[in-house]
Amino acid sequence: MQALTNKAKQVNRAPMSFMEKLYLPAIIKGMMITFSHIFKKKPTINYPEKKRPFSPVFRGLQILNRDEEGRENCTACGLCAVACPAEAITMEAAERQPGEEHLYKEEKYAAKYEINMLRCIFCGLCEEACPKDAIYLSETFTPADYQRKQFIYSKNDLLIPHPKENEEAYLKALGNRPQKQTL
Amino acid sequence: MDFAFLIEKLILIIVVVFASLGIAMYTTFAERKVAAILQDRRGPNRAGPFGLLQPLADGMKLFFKEEIIPNFSSKTLFILGPALAMLTACMTSAVIPWGNKVELFGRSIDLQIADVNIGILYVFGVVSLGVYGIMIGAWASNNKFSLMGGLRAASQIISYELAMGISMIALLMVTGTLSLKEMVVQQQHGFWNVVYQPLGFLIFLICSFAECNRTPFDLPEAENELIGGYHTEYSSMKLGFYLFSEYINMFISSVIMATLFFGGYDLPFLDESTLAPNIAAIIGVAALMAKVIGFIFLFMWVRWTIPRFRYDQLMHLGWRILIPLALFNMLATGGAILYFGK
Predict the structure, then answer these.
(1) B172 is in which domain, residue-wise?
(2) Structural domain boundaries, residue A129
C-alpha cells in the first residue's frame, strides 16, 4: 500500500549477530556514551546566585507606580479590580486632604489597596485596564512564605520606592519597561 | 583471654563498622552526584559546601518521618526484616583484610577482624543469609506487590549465587586457599588474579550486580513495576535500613572484588618490605580504598546506562548462560593448571 509520506522507517528484524548476542560490546558502547556526558557543559543555572534573564514584557510581581515628583498615581477607580479574573484586588478610596498634595496626584486616592497573591494568576489584565499607569507587572517573583495571610500584599508592599528619596531603588524597580501614555 | 587482644579487636570492630557505615552514607551522596553528572545536570550542592552534608540531611529526614506499621498479625517479622538485612550486610566486613600490619604500642596489629581460613566461604554464607531479610520483609508486609518483589528478589539472588560460587571454585584452584589474607599475600608476590582469571572476574562482576539488587538486575525494587517492591510498606528508619543495607552490600562487594581479583591492599609496583610498617599499612589502605572507589563508580556507571532486565531474561541469563560459562571457566582453569603444572 502506498505510504503517505516517506518518513516511515523500515524496522530491522534480522536475527542478532554474534557480536550483538554477546550484549557486552553494546553495553560498553553505551557506557562510553554515558561517560562522555561527564565532560559536556551543564545547562543548569545556579539560582539564586545567577538568574535567568527575562524579557521586558515578563509578567511578575505587581508594582504601584508614582510620577516623577513622587506622588502616587493610583486613584482607586477600581478598573483593575473589575478586570481581574481571579478577584484578587480589593481597595478602599479616600479623599485627598489639603495638606497632602505632595503625596497623591489626584483628589481621590487608595487608602487601602490589597492584592491577594494566592489568587493572582499574573495575567496582566490589571496593567492593561489601568487608565493612570498606576499598576504594572515587573520582573520579580513572589517569594515563598510560611503562612497564608502573609501573602495578602498591602499598598506599602507594592508601592514603588520614592524617586526623590530613593532614586536608585526607584530606577531599578522601573526596569526597562516602556512608559505608557496616561489619560 | 589476653586483655589487650580483646581491646584491640574491639577497637578494630568499631572502626570497621563505623567506617563502612560512613562510606555507605557517602555512597548515597556519590550516587546522586554521579547520576547527575552522567545526566548533564549538577547533583545536590546546597546542604553544606558542595552538598557534602546531604547524607546527614537525608538520615535526619528519615528519622523525623512517621513510623507506620500496618495493622496485621506479625509485627515481629515486620521489624525483623530490615534488621536482618542490615545485620548480614555489616557482618561480611569481618573477614576482609584492610591493610598490612600496624605497629602500635609495641604490638603488631593485623588490620583484619577475623583471619579465618575459610574466609571467602564465610562471606558467601552471610550473603546467602541476606536474602532472608528481603523475604521476611516482603512476606510480613501483607501486600501482593511486596510479595512479588520478594519472590523475584529471592529467586534472583539464589540463581546468581550459583554462578558466583562456581567462578569462585575456579579462583580457588588458582590460589589454593580460601583465606582472604593469603590471597592478598599471594597477589603481592605474583600477578593480580584478574590476569589469571579474566572470565571468572567478568562472571563474578555480573553476579555481584545481581546480589546487590542493582540495575540492570533491580527488579525487586523496580519502581515502575512494583511501586517499591519489598519495601513498599516501610517508612522512616526501617526503610532507611533497607536502602542503607543495599549500599553497604555494594561497598562490601566492591571490597571483595578488589581483594579477590585486584590485589586487595597491594600497590602494584611498590615493594612493601622497604618501608616502615605503619607507612606501608596506610599506603595499603589507601590503595584498597582507591580500588573500591573505582568499583563503586563502575556500579553507578552501569546503573545509569542500561535498562532493567525482564524477569525471564534475568533467569535465562543466570541459569542458561552464566552457569555453563562458569563451568566452562572452571574446566578450562583446571586444564590450564594441569598443562602448565603450576
Answers:
(1) 72-340
(2) 62-174
